[in-house]
Design brief:
By secondary structure, this protein is of the alpha/beta class. The chain has one domain: TIM Barrel (Alpha-Beta Barrel), CATH 3.20.20.70. Helices cover 38% and strands 18% of the residues. Helix 1 packs across helix 2. The radius of gyration is 17 Å and the shape is elongated. About 7% of the residues have low confidence. Keywords: Hydrolase. It comes from Fervidobacterium pennivorans. One of its GO terms (molecular function) is hydrolase activity.
Length: 170
Amino acid sequence: MTNDFVSKIALTTIFLALLFPVVLSLFATEVPQDWILYTNGPKLEELMLVKSDLVVIDYSADGTDKKAFKKEDIAFLQSQGKKVFSYLNFAVAEDWRFYWNSLNKAIILAPLGGWPGEYYVKYWYSEWYDVVKQYMKRITSAGFNGVALDWINIYQHTKLQKLSGKNAEG
């Protein structure tokens, strides 16, 4: 792995940890055995019926800003004893998200096999950092307890290594 590539990964991690305190909540929270991930149109009433104290949901009922959860929605779940984390696909672009129409498609590498509408992305590019920052602002303003980051180990994924010409060893 080149020093430049490693530096970009390290800077991304430091940037997120320093700029967005909500990310730190993920590391400070003990995750119980019983938790639920619900990303496909969760309804608050359904989440209240879940016995788990930790729920991971999308920042939005359908991935768009139009159906984004409001601070009051998250506060209601929290008032019922739930810790509410937002799901964030850290290194894969999804075509139903708020950012898709304005995303620079030059940072898209290829479709992610088995996941329609999801794409490998050049997550080390500043354009993707901007997307993550926008995402984190939405999560922070809605009052989530923390963030569950998906695909943070994507640099190990063999197909991405072939597409990008980079690998985990160097």
